[in-house]
Write a structure and sequence with these properties.
Elements: H1 8-24, H2 42-47, H3 71-94, E1 97-99, H4 103-110, E2 119-121, H5 122-137, H6 141-144, H7 146-153, H8 168-179, H9 183-195, H10 199-223, E3 226-227, E4 233-234, H11 237-248, H12 253-293, H13 301-316, H14 319-348, H15 353-364, H16 367-374, H17 378-382, H18 395-400, H19 408-415, H20 417-437, H21 446-450, H22 454-463, H23 469-500, H24 504-523, H25 527-539, H26 541-550, H27 552-567, H28 570-575
Antiparallel strand pairs: 1-2, 3-4
Helix pairs in contact: 3-25, 5-10, 5-26, 7-19, 8-14, 8-20, 8-23, 9-16, 9-20, 9-22, 10-11, 10-15, 10-16, 10-19, 10-20, 11-12, 11-26, 12-23, 12-24, 12-25, 12-26, 13-23, 13-24, 14-20, 14-23, 23-24
Main location: membrane
Subcellular location: Cell membrane
GO molecular function, one term: amino acid:sodium symporter activity
């Protein structure tokens, strides 16, 4: 079945409904004066990408010296104010805190270990519910198929004649390039600083559960993908939401209609997330890091934006095949740099390893660790899912849908390695460095923890052991940002094509728009515009998880059929 373009009228209706909903929620452009400072809720500040960037803000001038901005700065401020109002309205839903009433939490509150009024944000709870359900529903396929996943990535079962655009390894690196970033550096540091060493235990648990979420969504992406005559693949949540729910519930017009609405909603959110969180934020984040080494860029930031746009453009112009060829080289290199730096510190402190693991086990089930773990890792980790492992968000399913395979389950198993590499390997490296160096409890770094400056905390911890580590971190930040942008460009482009038609002209129009946002990201410092990306990406989890839950029986059926054939040795005979 060839993918059909959604009628423009349907798209316009959904946009109109969204606009009316935002209006009902109180979203209107701010009428405040140009000097008014936009206030961002604390819940959004904690999720803001800026907390994991260079994290240094210029000091404000005295009130008497402030002047009303004019020209470009005035336009930037007004846009920022409008996005701020939107962020408040939508953030109140996505970051609504579900109260905690567990006895150990109440006891911790009474002892002053936990601030009263805290809870789990709705988006985090939704991701956690989905990940837990999928893990049990698929009988812990994340553990059962781990060895098989490695063999698949190594190419043992590859068939170059299978339909698709990229290999298993290329699909995995393309997805990883969008997930491995400063969330691995900053988010983990804050989790350890908030909950102590025990938070690492909960971080690893979150990664294990996320493996099954990734398996389920990427299996569905393969089942319901569409391949055009020229070989281009259209796949991801927007396809299994619109087509899958219709096929699985043929006699239920409500579910069928809901699927189409969810697909359009997901596509709109993904486009917004790709242009903000997957683009402008990445440029600003890497620019801040490079400007510390090359101060001249602070005055000519647009030069950095143009250069970055050029290098992004020469890759994304070729689509997923060009992106995959790039990520299969960059991802192993950038992960290797960071892991080696962490291992160097661990080797220097090898005698502290036993005490380190004892601290993790002892602290894992203490009230503060449970709170800091779940609300430090599952809030700072799951809440920042787009910048961590993206399990449940659905974006990685777009990349994995392009893999060459005739077995959807096979690609789902490959995809499950993503959260393992991102969270259990790379994030654990950061956690071990934080614990071994004891930076998380050093009084001189308390202010960094209090202000959620995780990147700075990690940098200080490593610099205390390895001189000039800030240069290594700068290189890592540039690579992380660059690889994230090229992968998110593909996510946004596929969703754009889903809404407006899958043609070369439509795809090219989006790529040009994406490159414009690369340059804008280097000159626009609007905080709320960048926070908007967080909301869009986290918002993707709501339609995606709901759809995967409704289609979980289809995933289970596909898994059981494949696993029976695998255990019988059929695939090994074919491989030999």
């Amino acid at each position: 079945m060839k993918h059909q373009r959604l009628p423009a009228l349907v798209v316009l209706r959904v946009l109109l409904i969204a606009a009316l909903t935002m209006s009902f929620c109180g979203w209107t452009p701010s009428r405040a004066g140009a000097q008014e400072k936009t206030t961002v809720p604390e819940s959004q500040k904690a999720a803001s990408p800026q907390e994991s960037s260079a994290e240094s803000k210029p000091k404000e001038a005295p009130e008497a010296e402030k002047q009303a901005p004019t020209g470009f700065k005035y336009i930037e401020l007004k846009i920022d104010e409008a996005f701020g109002e939107f962020n408040k309205a939508v953030g109140n839903v996505i970051f609504y805190r579900v109260p905690l009433n567990a006895e150990q939490v109440k006891e911790a509150i009474a002892k002053g270990q936990i601030a009263e009024g805290k809870g789990i944000p709705l988006a985090v709870l939704w991701l956690l519910i989905g990940a837990t359900f999928f893990t049990f529903r698929m009988n812990f396929i994340n553990i059962r198929a781990f060895k098989h996943a490695i063999l698949l990535v190594l190419g043992k079962y590859d068939d170059p004649d299978d339909e698709g655009e990229v290999t298993h390894f290329q699909a995995l690196t393309a997805a990883l390039s969008a997930t491995v970033g400063l969330g691995n550096i900053a988010g983990v540091a804050i989790a350890i600083g908030t909950g102590g060493p025990g938070a690492m235990f909960w971080m690893m648990l979150a990664g294990l559960l996320g493996m099954t979420s990734k398996f389920a969504e990427c299996t569905l992406a393969q089942i319901y993908r569409r391949i055009s005559p020229d070989g281009r693949v259209m796949g991801g949540p927007m396809c299994y939401l619109s087509v899958g729910l219709d096929e699985q519930y043929p006699n239920n017009s409500f579910v069928s209609g809901l699927g189409k609405i969810l697909a359009i909603l997901f596509a709109i959110l993904c486009i917004g997330g790709s242009l903000a969180g997957g683009n402008s934020f990445q440029v600003k984040q890497s620019l801040d890091a490079v400007a510390e080494t090359i101060p001249l860029l602070k005055s000519y930031s647009w030069v950095y934006g143009v250069v970055m746009a050029f290098f992004v453009g020469i890759v994304i112009i070729g689509g997923i095949r060009s992106i995959a060829r790039t990520t299969e080289k960059i991802v192993p290199f950038m992960c290797g740099i960071y892991i080696l730096a962490c291992l160097a510190i661990i080797v220097l402190k090898l005698d502290k390893i036993p005490d380190c693991f004892m601290a993790i086990i002892d602290g894992a089930f203490q009230p503060k660790a449970a709170y800091g773990g779940f609300l430090g890792v599952l809030v700072i980790g799951f809440k920042r899912a787009a910048f961590s492992n993206e399990a449940g968000v659905g974006s990685a399913a777009i990349a994995h849908s392009a893999a060459k395979t005739q077995f959807p389950t096979r690609e789902g198993i490959v995809a499950s390695l993503g959260p393992f590499i991102d969270t259990i390997m790379i994030c654990t490296m950061t956690a071990l460095v934080m614990i071994i160096t004891e930076a998380y409890k050093d009084p001189q770094y308390a202010n960094l923890i209090a202000k959620n400056k995780g990147a700075a905390l990690t940098s200080e911890a490593m610099a205390s052991q390895i001189p000039y580590f800030n240069y290594v971190l700068s290189v890592a930040v540039i690579l992380f940002a660059y690889s994230t942008m090229i992968s998110w460009s593909y996510y946004g482009e596929r969703c754009w094509a889903f809404l407006f038609g899958d043609s070369q002209k439509v795809s090219m129009a989006y790529r040009i728009l994406f490159l414009v946002f690369v340059v804008l990201g280097s000159i626009v410092s609007a905080t709320n515009v960048l926070d908007f990306g967080d909301l869009m990406i986290l918002g993707m989890a709501f339609p995606n998880i709901l759809g995967v839950l409704l289609l979980s029986n289809r995933v289970k059926k596909e898994l059981d059929s494949y696993w029976t054939r695998y255990k019988s040795g059929e695939f090994d005979q074919q491989a030999n």
